[in-house]
Amino acid sequence: MFTGMSAFPLTPLNESKIDEHAYLKIITRLVDAKVDSICVQGSTGSYAYLTLKERAHLLRLAVEEANGIPVMTSIGALRTRDVLIAAENAQKMGASALLLAPVSYQKLTLDEVFSLYETVAGEISVPLCIYESPGTTHFDFSPSLLLNLARLPNVASIKLLGGYPESENYLNRITNLKNALPTHVSLGISGDVFAAPSLSAGCQIWYSVIGGLFPRVAMKIAHLAITGKGDEAAQQSAKLAPLWALFRQYGSLRVVASAAAMLGLAENGCLPLPLKTLHGDVCKEISDVIESVQLS
Amino acid sequence: MFTGMSAFPLTPLNESKIDEHAYLKIITRLVDAKVDSICVQGSTGSYAYLTLKERAHLLRLAVEEANGIPVMTSIGALRTRDVLIAAENAQKMGASALLLAPVSYQKLTLDEVFSLYETVAGEISVPLCIYESPGTTHFDFSPSLLLNLARLPNVASIKLLGGYPESENYLNRITNLKNALPTHVSLGISGDVFAAPSLSAGCQIWYSVIGGLFPRVAMKIAHLAITGKGDEAAQQSAKLAPLWALFRQYGSLRVVASAAAMLGLAENGCLPLPLKTLHGDVCKEISDVIESVQLS
Q: Do the Cβ atoms of A83 and A74 come closer than 8 Å?
């Protein structure tokens, strides 16, 4: 399941409840577009803001709706204890794979992160994806840590962040990792603007934010790049430059949540406070972007 | 209550339970040392790793044990909704003040952080302390945001991080803020190595990690500095240089948790996994530091 385009949908909610109707409407779009896989309650699905019980319930709804498309979910939590509970819940609810970022409040050491993954990998029976997300976890995976983690049982994919770290050429990093990783561990890319070149450079899967809202355009870019049509993939991605600029400025979550509301797929303000959807002049920009995405 | 030395004790725990016996033993030491105030379930008290229910229960125990010493607690959480619940719980359990850091998973904007504090300040009836903690929240308060927050109702103190930001002289920052803040808002310092010079530069309270374990030495340094004996305070603080070096290398939480275990005040491994206490050669260094602190 770790090839192609994995769509990361929103979990629309407000201060009093999760909007399950909107959530399922968004997942249905992904099923209709025949995405390769779905990751519910990833960062874009606000897993960190939900209780373990809410996450288990939402996963079950998604698996029922997915019509056989593999569903992954994040099991990240501040405490190892809660990660293990999330993993057990997710397996019970039918997750095909688990995604784990080293969520932190106190900055974690390399040893602590290795132990976290070692503990979890030893307890699960479905594939695990290692999630690099320095913007939310503030943890830097060293290349040697990634290689050590890749040797743990059940580890099946690494979700890298494109363009990271800024101090080196990220495409070289992808090539080097690809050459060093066991072949059964797939290399995946996140950071949508970096997807097309990263897939052309050897990544096998795009863990995609826009794929959660605009699955057809993300599927098109991913499959062009994976089948060797890197130039066409890059052209398609370049058409979305205004969207990538909005992501950079406001964060992808605020932009896709605002876009979902403008498309009638969720209510306004569908993020957990203190996070806010966007308002004012930027909405016109988002509206223009939506139009161009729908045409592409 | 926002002057002098506020002690931040540990919350010793393991994967199956909170060690309430050890927790109360540590608090009793603070009461015996007549600290100016206590902040339970601050960052050193692992608030971020505890449930709202656990936090409320632990606060009640602390207030009962405190013998009239004012007790503050952190109300931080990822969701505004949970911050409000924590605030309500804390007030019910007898908190004299509330401490709030802008906890994040998705990076927060200035506007989101202002709204968070505005919402909370409008709902509470005890003083609020604004908590700058870039190492755990990854949020940078601008000077103008701090001044705007200081004007909100119930805001009574700001807990700055000493030595931060690295790009400017932190003592100048303290002087500038002190001159600009309303006089009813006290300026406090955290980052223990920076306490003595910051108190001499005009901070009124030290929010102290070592105060949670070695209350007498922290009280001595704080009160020397506050009563104009800055040189003596600096000398006392300089004696602890090996401790400050350990804090910098391993993080203050791992060091004080390890020291508490070595002192018989908590069990080994009293932090929430994936966080680990220290082991190996560094324990000898900690043991030497403990000896020198106890002599000072």
A: no
Q: Is residue B128 part of a domain?
A: yes
B50 sits in the region (left: phi over 0; alpha: psi -120 to 50; else beta) called beta
ipTM of the complex: 0.97
Let me know the angle formed at the C-alpha of B9 by B6 and B10, rounded to the nearest 5 degrees. Answer: 155
A107 to B135: CB separation less than 8 angstroms, yes or no: yes
pLDDT > 90: what percent of chain A?
96
Point out the residue among A102, A107, A113 whose CB comes nearest to the CB of B251.
A107
- Cα–Cα distance measured from residue B126 to residue B93, given in angstroms and rounded to the nearest whole number: 12
pLDDT of amino acid B193: 97
> Is A208 a domain residue?
yes
Is the Cβ pair A48, B78 closer than 8 Å?
Answer: yes
How many whole angstroms from its chain centre is CA B282? 24
In a domain, A187, yes or no: yes
Domain range for B143: 4-227
List of chain A residues with pLDDT < 70: 295-296
pLDDT at B296 (0 to 100): 62
* Alpha-carbon distances, residue B243 vs A47, B163, B249 (angstroms): 38, 17, 10
Say which residue the tokens 């890298």 belong to.
A160
Chain B residue numbers with beta carbons less than 8 Å from the beta carbon of A108 are 274-275
CA distance A118 to A139: 17
CATH of the domain at A126: 3.20.20.70
pLDDT at B295 over 70: no
Could you say which of A81, A108, A136 has the minimum Cβ distance to residue B106? A136
Q: What is the pLDDT of residue B168?
A: 86
Place of tokens 């890059």: A234
Identify the burial level of B179 via C-beta atoms within 10 angstroms of its C-beta, where 0-12 means exposed, 13-18 middle and 19 or more buried: exposed
Q: Is residue A264 part of a domain?
A: no
Q: What DSSP letter does each residue of A226-264 carry, written as one string?
A: HTT-HHHHHHHHHHTHHHHHHHHHH-HHHHHHHHHHHTT
Task: Say yes or no: A273 contacts chain B, CB-CB below 8 A.
Answer: yes
**Helices first, then strands: H and E counts in chain B:** 13, 8
The count of domains in chain A is: 1
Interface test with B, best of A109, A112, A275 (most B CBs within 10 A): A275
